Amino acid sequence: MPDLSDERLAAQIPLRHSVRSFTDRRIEGQTRAALQRFVDECNERSGLSFALCTDEPGAFSSLLVRYGLFRNVRNYIACIGAQDQDLQERVGYWGERCVLAAQALGLNSCWVGLTYSKKKVAVPVSAGQKLVCVIALGYGTMAGKPHKSKRALQVAPGVEGSPDWFRRGVEAALLAPTAVNQQKFAISLDGDEVRFQSEGGTYTKVDLGIVKAHFELGAMR
Questions:
Q1: Which CATH number is 152-219's, of 3.40.920.10, 3.40.109.30, 2.40.50.140, 3.40.190.10?
Q2: Residues 6-138, CATH architecture
Q3: Which ranges carry the Putative nitroreductase TM1586 domain (predicted)?
Q4: Is the pTM of this model over 0.90?
Q5: pLDDT, tens digit, for every residue of 126-159?
């Protein structure tokens, strides 16, 4: 069984970059089974209803895809959950863990908020639930490239005098994907309590969940 431990996920953080163009290679066999198990475990732990959809190009067959510069997306995770005030943040947190697990399995990925067809997503959304976004998956035509990033002091002003574990967490958080690379978040340390704050904007609640996942994996605490 592939290693998808927290240590293994943390090791993927500097390696994983957004990819929007994919080959025709199918996600199958042990890779698909391992990713499905991981998604199922995330659902069980979080109460979310993520769905792994493979060989389902419909959601990325509309004209919207051209604006998002996506090519040949045939696989994705539909990020679904019961509507409540922290749904988007939970989607970000658990979705990013799935993203890093996919990376560990040799897959590439990209968070997608708008440029896909919600009506053509291959799984039903039950009453009281919401489809927040999807995560495009597959074998990329390229590995992607690092995004421009803020400095640690810009998101965590007190980081220089902080413990090593906090600095590691902040550095990992700076590698978190955010909507249009806006990085609208702040992290602070109050005693032993880590505080996260969103500065508001499009999909920033999802972003905050992603940032928290990275911080926890980076800090390993």
A1: 3.40.109.30
A2: 3-Layer(aba) Sandwich (3.40)
A3: 11-219
A4: yes
A5: 999 999 999 999 999 999 999 889 999 999 998 9
